[in-house]
Structure formats: C-alpha cells, structure tokens
Design a protein that fits this description.
This protein has 20 helices and 8 strands. The protein is α/β, with parallel strands linked by helices. It has 3 domains: about 190 residues, Ribonuclease H-like superfamily/Ribonuclease H (Nucleotidyltransferase, domain 5); about 90 residues, DNA polymerase, domain 1 (Orthogonal Bundle), CATH 1.10.150.80; about 80 residues, HRDC domain (DNA polymerase, domain 1), CATH 1.10.150.80. Helix 4 runs parallel beside helix 7 and helix 16 runs antiparallel to helix 18. The longest helix has 21 residues. It starts with 13 loop residues before the first strand and ends with a helix.
Length: about 400
Amino acid sequence: MSDDQDSEETPTPVVLTEPRDGVPEVVSDLEGLRTVVDRFRAATGPVAVDAERASGFRYQPRAYLIQLRRAGAGTALVDPTGFEDLRELNAALADTEWILHAASQDLPCLAGEGMRPPRLFDTELAARLCGFERVGLAALVEKLLGFTLEKHHSAADWSTRPLPADWLTYAALDVELLVELRDILDAELRLQGKRDWADEEFAAALNAPAPAPRAEPWRRTSGIHRVRGARPLARVRELWYLRDEIAQRLDRAPSKIVPDPALADAAIADPTDFGELTSIPGFQRRHGRANAKRWLQALSKVRKLSEDELPSVSPASDGPPSTHRWASRDPAAAARLKRARAAVAEVAAAHELPPENLVAPAAVRALCWQPPRPITRTTVAEALEHHGVRAWQIELVAKTLVAAVKG
C-alpha cells in the first residue's frame, strides 16, 4: 500500500499535544516501580513500549527513560537509572505481545535493563511489509490515525536530569497511539496476506544476535580517506583507541571528546608540541586540551613503531569488495549482481515491498560474488539462509535469483 494509493482527500490531521490521561510522574523509586508492576500485570492486551537513549551524548548506549502503555494500566514513564534492573517489570509483561516502533533500535538497551519481549509487533517493520513509503512513527500516525505528533526531542540528551516537562510529554505521546496503530497495521497485513511474513520478521528481530565487534573499528573514522600511508594510518589508530578509552571512562560520546575529522587532521600533521596540537580544530575543546600530553605521547609512540607494527594500507576483508570495484576485479560477478538486483526489484514491486525488506542487499552481494556450485534452487536457498534470509523471502526470490546468477 503506497502512500499515494488512496486518492481520496484526507482530513486535516489533529495536532496531539497531550496524552489523553495527562503526563504521568516519572517512576524512579522502588515503591513507584512496584505500583507500576502491579498495574501492568493486572491490565490486558498488548503493551506499547519505547525507550529513550542519549546517542551522541553518552558512551554507553543504555536507556535513560522507558515508556509503557497498556489497556487498563494507562501510561508509565520509568527512569531505569534508578534501579539495578527492571526484571520484575519484565516478568509482569511476560504473557503479552510488546509493540515497538523500529524495535531493532530499542531492543538492545531494553535488554540491558533486563527487559526482553516474549512476542513482538514492530510497527515500522509492519508498515514496510505493507508497502508504505513513509514508515516513521509520526508519518504513520498522521496517515492512519489522523494525528500529528511533535518530534522535536528525538535527538535530545535523555541523560539530562531532571527531564524537562515538554520532553516527558513527547515521550508519553510516543506510546499513546501505538496499540491503535498496531491494530490497523495488523489488519492491513492480513488483508495483503503478509501476516505470516511479519511473524517471521518479528521473530528474527527478537532473536537477532548482537553484532560482532569490528576487527579494526578505527578504520571507520570520518575523514580517514584523507590519510595516506601506513604510519599516518597508525596515528589514526593510536588516537582512536586513546579517545575511546577516555570516552568510556567519562561516559561521553567519542565525538564529544574530539571529533573524527580532528583525528584525521592530527594524523596528517603529526604535531609534536602543545601549540601545534591545539592549533588543530577539535583539539581546542576542553577534553582535547586537557589530554594534550596523552595525545602527544600517542603520536610519539607511533614514530617509534617498526614497519611490521604498522597497519596495512588496505583493510582486510572476508566479504565481497565494494561494488564499485566489481567491474574491474570480476566483470562476471558485476554482471550477476546487476541481473540479481533487477530481479529482486521486480519481485519486490509485484508484492509491494521495498527490495531491502524482500532480501537483504548484503546477502545478494555475497551470493553474486561467490555463487554456490552447482547453482540450483537448493544451493541458492542454502546460501541465502546462511546470510540470514528468512524462509518466506527465500520462497519468493530463490527461483528468480537462480536464473539471475546463472545468466
């Protein structure tokens, strides 16, 4: 269902400024938490859940506010920083479906507080499967429910204490209409015959493993493309790990210590004294200046490294190279990928799905770069499954991908 599929004129949306029951007090003590636990355990139906983090402000990706709403219980705002964990609240919700929007963003920080849904309904993912072009919470609430949500505080520092009143209103409104939104999307999934697909996707989201740590995370430093040579790259590496140590100790986002471009600038300039270092934008900040001695020591250490201790100029990779290099490195693989992308796009359009929700692009790239031998529906299906493609997706694309890979 594309957003322009309904040609009827839609009414002007109503701006939602306050929750229907008002904004509850933030729960931050054991007595208040036990009251919430009892209230939500006695309530019925699915529970809407959301979490607010302090991305870009704090090092730890934890939840700083958790919002819940359930029929018969109303809305609760819980400050998880006041508790060792929220396992008791989790137990009170162990028999119901949890509704989240863009669940992959919140599930890790909820798990960090001891909260893990037994069953999931992801409204963003459901909207993608239904074929909506705009799947943000505000866009869906406006289109399907006729309300406008204010989204001014989505990038706020939620570790702030006390939390401002308008932030709490925003947070409460994030779960205000999730149950109603879930019911509309559930009906649409059933109408389109996609409810079973959604169940597989929701289960995959719930059981997704934590991403493996990157072998060389410093190589993703913004601006590193300007750094040439093994020893300058070693400077980026040394400065990156030092910044990460400082950021973790202070629980500050690394960019708040020294921004990425400054690390690249220092790696290129290789300053040897305080004046040279602090002339680089980014190192003029408080943490840049306060740790100047340590930055300079890190750079001095790199000057003494042997050639064997320097990083390779090109990062090691077990997967396919960047697709812009395929044509020169393996023209046949590039041709396979072109055919496969076209085939996936055709199947996705026929089922009103975004291509990336039909099959993960990374799985298609891996299949085309190194196809199984022989190329059959069974071997292609096994290769796709190895890369996390779900059964319903394999059923839709395996045959057409066999043809595309064979050429």
